[in-house]
Q: What sequence folds into this?
């Protein structure tokens, strides 16, 4: 079978690319078989069922001058074009997505992931895009061919003029992840590890602390240098810490590990949050019992920040994104095609780019899918 534009992986980025490209190209999506066979399933679980799908920072050019985002600057900004703005305009104006902003986060207007999901799937059904159920295992760029296993586990081949690989990372529900497809590309990549996940600590968490929540400021230190701090709610787990602020530190810890750094300390300062503060001299009796007990057992003074030492990340099953993937220096950021292989495009979480919680990850996947879709419309083979 020959597909004009083949998309491997009908997730967030693949779906966007398909919708855009189908205006001018004959598009086929090859999606891994799954229960109830759903495309872009991650939208439904994102943001705890609310799908915070975008962040206002993505629209702001200054964001891309910060260390975390500078690698994607040339993907998002191209001369006068701001792809973050164009992607959001497409979703809102052309597809009719109603959304609202809470702080910097964008949510569907009715606060439900299904609203974004149904919109994209509804558009797909109206389009000419063909969907095939099958798990791709190998790409042969030279022969423009992809091998896959269909639902009956029969090995099949499909040929393409252009191909987008948008198979995402390996977090959450991808226990069966295999590197065979990635390996067949012959590109350099950083093997995936779990990110935006809870972390295990060297300190034991006593039974009375488990499942307790403490609001405050979480600071990450490496070699006594402050790396990141963020206000939030910390959830104590059996063997570590969880919560959005903790999830976000994992991105920084991964980057430091990549630089060869070790020794990460997390400090929880619970003396103020949301503009309110506590004076441990005048308010010593309003501490919750679990905190009072822990301070006593670990010989902390009232008000003294709690210190935890990073031991490990929780496994993929507990992670919202994976850290790692194909290094961006092998990609032409103007088109998202692989350098010197201009029929092969890559987008989304499979690339070595991961960001904190708050709409950045899905937002950039939507954006990259949009960009590839646009490019493919303009391209004549
Ligand atoms: C629990 C959870 C909550 C999240 N919440 C948020 C949030 O609130 N905000 C946010 O911005 N981000 C959130 N994310 C992250 C966001 O969902 C991802 O970054 C985004 O979905 C990545 O899009 P993608 O297209 O790269 O990959 P995916 O959406 O993961 O799509 C990849 C697709 O490829 C398919 N596939 C994989 N391998 C193969 C193969 N070999 N052959 C064929 N098909 C294949 C998969 O089945 C999947 O459909 C969350 C993630 C999780 C797990």
A:
């Amino acid at each position: 079978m020959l597909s004009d534009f083949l998309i491997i992986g009908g997730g967030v980025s693949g779906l966007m690319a398909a919708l855009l490209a189908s205006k001018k190209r004959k598009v086929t999506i090859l999606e891994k078989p799954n229960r109830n066979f759903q495309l872009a399933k991650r939208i439904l679980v994102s943001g705890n069922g609310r799908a915070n799908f975008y962040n206002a920072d993505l629209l702001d050019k200054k964001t891309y001058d910060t260390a975390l985002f500078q690698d994607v600057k040339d993907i998002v900004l191209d001369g006068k074009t701001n792809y973050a703005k164009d992607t959001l305009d497409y979703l809102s104006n052309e597809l009719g997505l109603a959304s609202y902003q809470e702080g910097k986060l964008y949510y569907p207007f009715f606060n439900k992931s299904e609203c974004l999901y149904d919109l994209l799937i509804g558009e797909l059904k109206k389009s000419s895009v063909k969907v095939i159920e099958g798990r791709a295992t190998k790409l042969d760029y030279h022969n423009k061919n992809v091998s896959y296993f269909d639902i009956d586990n029969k090995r099949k081949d499909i040929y393409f003029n252009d191909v987008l690989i948008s198979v995402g990372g390996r977090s959450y529900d991808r226990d069966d992840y295999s590197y065979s497809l990635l390996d067949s590309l012959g590109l350099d990549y950083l093997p995936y590890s779990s990110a935006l996940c809870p972390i295990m600590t060297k300190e034991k968490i006593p039974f009375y602390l488990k499942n307790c929540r403490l609001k405050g400021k979480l600071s990450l230190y490496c070699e006594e240098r402050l790396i990141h701090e963020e206000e939030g709610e910390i959830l104590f787990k059996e063997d570590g810490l969880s919560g959005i602020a903790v999830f976000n530190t994992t991105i920084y810890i991964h980057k430091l590990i990549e630089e060869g750094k070790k020794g990460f300390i997390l400090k929880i300062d619970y003396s103020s949050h949301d503009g309110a503060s506590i004076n441990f001299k005048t308010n010593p009796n309003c501490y919750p019992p679990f905190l009072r007990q822990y301070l006593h057992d670990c010989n902390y003074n009232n008000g003294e920040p709690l210190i935890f030492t990073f031991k490990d990340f929780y496994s993929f099953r507990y992670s919202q994104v994976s850290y790692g993937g194909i290094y961006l220096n092998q990609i032409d950021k103007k088109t998202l095609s692989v350098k010197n292989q201009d029929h092969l495009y890559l987008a989304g979480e499979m690339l070595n780019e991961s960001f904190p919680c708050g709409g950045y990850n899905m937002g950039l996947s939507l954006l990259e899918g949009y960009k590839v879709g646009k490019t493919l419309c303009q391209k004549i083979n």
Notes: The chain has a mean pLDDT of 96.
